[in-house]
Amino acid sequence: MKVADDWFTVRWQDGAVVMIDQRLLPEQEAYLRLVDVEGVARAIEDLAVRGAPAIGCTAALGAALSAQLCTSPDPQAVADEVERACARLAATRPTAVNLFWALARMRDTLAELAAGGADAAAVRAGLLKEACELVEQDVEICRALGAHGAGLVPEGGRILTHCNAGGLATGGYGTALGVVRAAAEAGRNPTVLADETRPFLQGARLTAWELARDDIPVTVITDNMAAHLMQQGEVDLVIVGADRVAANGDVANKIGTYGLALHASAHGLPFYVAAPCSTIDLGTESGADIPIEERGRDEIAEFGARPVVPAGVPVRHPAFDVTPAELVTAIVTERGIAQAPYTESLAALLS
C-alpha cells in the first residue's frame, strides 16, 4: 500500500494556521494560510476544514494564533485575547464535541501557565506548543484506534462507509478510514464502498480522493444505493466516524448515518463506529441532548452553483443525525473497543 505523504490537513506553519481547502477537492489541492482568528473561524463554518477531530485541531491552533497576535507584555492581556478567540471559535459549529474539548484543553493550559507565573512570551510559547502537540497526538491516536479496529475487518472485507472520516477529518490517518488503512497495512485487502454523502459530497470528493491516493480499492455509490447493495450481499460491514458519542452510546454523525445503521441492522451486518475518546461526551446523557446543526438553504437548493429547488420552496438541512446505541455493534477508540452496555464500557474507557 502506498501511503500518501505529500499533503496534510492542518498545521502551524510560519506564523499562520495552514490547511488544505477541502471545498476544492478533488479538483484542486490548494492550501489556505490563515493569519487571524476570524479567518480560522470562517474556515470551520464554511467547511474548508471539517470532521470533528480536525475541527478540534484547527480550533486549538486558532487559540494559539490569537496569543501570537497579542503583542502586549502583560500576560493577562494575552489571556484575555485567547479567551475572546475561544469564544468565537466555540460559536462556529455546535455538534462536534472535539471542538469544545480542544478549546477546554487550551484554556487549561492557559490556566496552568498563569498559575506558574509565566510572562507574556512564555504564555504565547506554551499555548503554541500545546496546540502543535494536540495535532501530533491526534495522528498517534488515530493510528492506535486503527490498530484496535483492524481485527474487525475480515480478509477481503467489503466495507461501507459514510461521509469522510479519514485523514482529512483528523490531524491525519483517520478514524473510520484509520481502521481501513490499518486493515490494509495488515494485509487484509479491504475494499470500500463510499456513500457520496449529500449534500456536501464528502464521500465522493474526499473519501474517494484519500483512498485512491493510498491505492485502497474504493467505489463511490449514491446514498440511496446502500440498502440495495446490502441486499445483494455486497457489503460485509459498515464503519463510520462520529461527531459526538453520548454517555449511553448514542452516536451523532453526518446526516444519513442513522438510515445506514437501520439498513445494516435489517441485513444482519455489523455497524461499527470509530472515534477517539475526545469524541465521547459523558456529560451528554443521550442522543436527545446532542445539538444538531442546521445549515443554510443553498447547500441543498443548489448543486454546482445551479439551482435544483424552485425559488421560494423551503428546504430542511440538518447536518447530522443520531444513531441509537442499540444499532451500534461496537465503538472503536484508541484505548480499545467498547460494546454494550455502553454506559459502563464508555465510562471505563475514559476512567
List the SSEs and their pairings.
Layout: E1 10-13, E2 16-20, E3 31-34, H1 37-45, H2 52-69, H3 75-90, H4 97-115, H5 120-150, E4 158-161, H6 176-185, E5 191-195, H7 202-213, E6 218-221, H8 226-231, E7 237-240, E8 244-246, E9 251-254, H9 257-266, E10 271-274, E11 280-281, H10 298-301, E12 302-303, E13 306-307, E14 320-323, E15 330-333, E16 336-338, H11 342-350
Parallel strand pairs: 4-5, 4-7, 5-6, 7-10, 8-11, 10-15
Antiparallel strand pairs: 1-2, 2-3, 8-9, 9-14, 12-13, 15-16
Structural account:
The protein has a seven-stranded mixed sheet with strand order 6-5-4-7-10-15-16. It is globular, with a radius of gyration of 20 Å. It has helices spanning 37-45, 52-69, 75-90, 97-115, 120-150, 176-185, 202-213, 226-231, 257-266, 298-301, 342-350; strands at 10-13, 16-20, 31-34, 158-161, 191-195, 218-221, 237-240, 244-246, 251-254, 271-274, 280-281, 302-303, 306-307, 320-323, 330-333, 336-338. A hairpin with a 2-residue loop joins β1 (10-13) and β2 (16-20). The protein has eleven helices and 16 strands. It has 351 residues and is an alpha/beta fold. α2 (52-69) packs antiparallel against α3, α2 packs antiparallel against α5 and α3 packs antiparallel against α4 (97-115). The longest helix has 31 residues, at 120-150.
